[in-house]
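Working notes for the structural subgroup meeting. M.R. asked for a predicted model of this chain before we commit to crystallization trials. I am recording the input and output together here so anyone reviewing the notebook later can reproduce the run.

Input as submitted:
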Amino acid sequence: MSGLSIARYFPFMRVKITGQNVHHENASSALIKLEPDKRYRPFCHACGLPVATVHSRGHRRLLRDLNMACAQLWLQVEYRKIWCNNCGGTRVEQLSFAYTWPTDCEFAQAPRKKAQSVGLTGTPSAK
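Returned structure, recorded in token form:
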């Protein structure tokens, strides 16, 4: 097994990298698999407080991140739904690098919007 690791390029808190795949013969895209680090309690995305009860596990989202070299980078993020006593309902756990619903990672969304505002890329897809 190789001693190389991509973990230092993804300093996300509260998740761990569980896999990586390079797609296509010319390595035009890559998929990084992330899942919750069970050493940490989840936080409610609505109120930001830590919660003790996990409602369900195994939910996944696919997020587009910034390119790595010339390869498109996708993050397959597993997340938990939690029960928040403060909000009184089931919520999605808060992840520091992802918004609750859009498919862009926080680090990719701002540069992508700026490039689109000056006409460097096509129109954004509706999500």
